[in-house]
Amino acid sequence: MMEEKCGVFGIRTIKEEMLAHTVYYGLYALQHRGQESAGIVVNHDREFYSHKDLGLVGDVFTRDVLKALPPGNIAIGHVRYSTTGGSSRINCQPIEVHHHKGNLALAHNGNLSNAAELKRKLEETGSIFHTTSDTEIIAYLITRHRLECASIEDAVSAAMDELHGAYSLVISSPSKMIAVRDPFGFRPLCYGIRPDGAHVVASETCALYSVGAEYVRDLEPGEILVFDGKDVISRREHCDRAPKKTCIFEYIYFARPDSRIDGISVHRSRLKLGRLLAEHSPTDADVVMGVPDSGIDAAMGYANKSGIPYGVGLVKNRYIGRTFISPEPEERHSKVRIKLSPIRSEVEGKRIILIDDSIVRGTTMGEIVRMLKDAGAKEVHVRISSPEFLYPCFYGTDVDSKENLVACHNSVEEICAMTGADSLAFLPLSALGQITGKEDYCAACFDGNYPD
Fold first, then answer.
1. Is residue 343 within 8 Å of 314, Cβ to Cβ?
2. Which DSSP category does 32 fall into?
3. Span of 171-185, 327-341, 374-388 with lowest mean pLDDT
4. Span 395-427, pLDDT tens digits
5. Are the CB atoms for 436 and 269 separated by under 8 Å?
6. Do residues 180 and 190 lie in contact, with contact meaning Cβ atoms separated by under 8 Å?
7. The dihedral of CA 391, 394, 400, 405: what is its sign?
8. Which of 94, 204, 209, 336 is close enough to 367 for a disulfide, judged by CB 3.0 to 4.6 Å?
């Protein structure tokens, strides 16, 4: 089962204000990145006040919960889907650490590839872990260096020398907010500024706009940004230590279409995916349809390039999460029909080209094809706007076993038969570079070329 990434958010103001509501709105905009848990930590007069729990943002943060959190001048938040560490309340973020030089709160998007090694070393020197998340490892490592360093940013920089893998971080110390992006830049991270001068950090630009902040720029891979309430200080000692390798699946699926990652529009990237699919895998049909929501933009691109009309044939129930969020396979199957419903009048008697972003196990696509044919579709030709998943991901997507990847054990023809589609084609691996117009991306889950 392929799982979700996480979303991080932070704000630093000059004067104290009720920041919990602002972080709430930011996390709501990032809900697509994690639907397992949510948390907010508010820095009020150098003391931390927090609320974290399992569930969606709107369920975890009721009106009364938000009112109970005090005003502050720094607040950070997190939405999570588990990568390293299981699904339990104790793993909710942001992680908090209290030590004699002050407090530390940390929100993390990514996955450390050397987590086990670092944890063992920390335990051997007295660290006691309360969670199973690699975020606690990062927090303890920074804390350990903070006890020896002159500043929190020095401690963060020292910790980065030991961290391997993917990490975009938002950190609160008693007086500063710090944003960090790993030297490969696997995970997105950007910052903006509100008209009143408050600085906002978020996983995606859509979260900046949701709180009235104007996008300034993305963090460079390896960059540390320090926000002290007045200035923004950039530390670049870890920049250019590794080739840039932003996760290509951000553009294919994870990010919201209205976001920009490293200056590139996600919506336009997905339109391009659809056009590339139409070039490489054309077929005769009456209508092109996208699986809501992630297949819609690519379907529009396919229709535009092929000249076949775009149509809406599936309606999404907005009150249910993504199908692979379900912890049990049998629940995931039943949720497909609850989540998606065919429009019989638009489907019946039609030859359909159905666009989706990926096939992991193949079970979800099989359910969708069956639904369309039950609704009277004459033919269903499936086109996937990514290559086949062939390798596990160690950088936060949590595709951790080839056993879970249908393409590892079956040919395209066999997958087509399993899903019941009339034909099936994936985006060629060679076309990935055309999505962003650059070659500075990580596609290890497709090609096995791991950067780290």
1. yes
2. G
3. 327-341
4. 876 665 788 799 999 999 999 999 999 999 999
5. yes
6. no
7. negative
8. 336
Tokens linked to 413: 């023809």
- Helices marked H in 281-381 — which ranges? 296-306, 329-339, 344-347, 363-374
Q: What is the mean pLDDT of residues 98-121?
A: 92
For residue 106, what are the β-bridge partners? 95, 171
Residues 6 or more apart whose CB falls under 8 angstroms from that of 240 comprise 222
Single-letter code of the amino acid located at 92: C
Residue 201 identity (one-letter amino acid): V
* pLDDT (0 to 100) of residue 324: 42
Task: Tell me the mean pLDDT in the region 327-335.
Answer: 55
Question: Distances in Å between the alpha carbon of 40 and those of 24, 74, 161, 199, 335?
Answer: 8, 11, 28, 17, 29
- Fold assignment, 7-244: Glutamine Phosphoribosylpyrophosphate, subunit 1, domain 1 (3.60.20)
pTM for this prediction:
0.92
Q: Which amino acid is at 147?
A: L
Token reading at 150:
């002159």
What ranges do the domains of the chain cover?
7-244, 268-437
Using left for φ > 0, alpha for ψ between -120 and 50, and beta otherwise, residue 82 falls in beta
Mean pLDDT over 364-393 rounds to 95
Strands 441-442 and 379-384: unpaired
d(CA 288, CA 352): 6
Which pLDDT score, from 0 to 100, does residue 322 have? Answer: 44
Residue type, 344: R
How is residue 118 written in tokens? 């670092």
In this structure, are residues 10 and 74 in contact, taking their beta carbons and an 8 Å threshold?
yes
Task: Give the residue numbers annotated as catalytic, written as ranges.
Answer: 6
How many beta carbons lie within 10 A of that of residue 233, not counting itself? 12
* 436 or 304: which leads in pLDDT: 304
Q: Are 219 and 179 in contact (CB under 8 A)?
A: yes
Confidence band of 326 (pLDDT split at 50, 70, 90)? very low
7-244 and 268-437 share one CATH topology? Answer: no
**Does the 268-437 domain belong in CATH 3.40.50.2020?**
yes
Of residues 337, 422, 415, 315, the one with CA closest to residue 377: 422
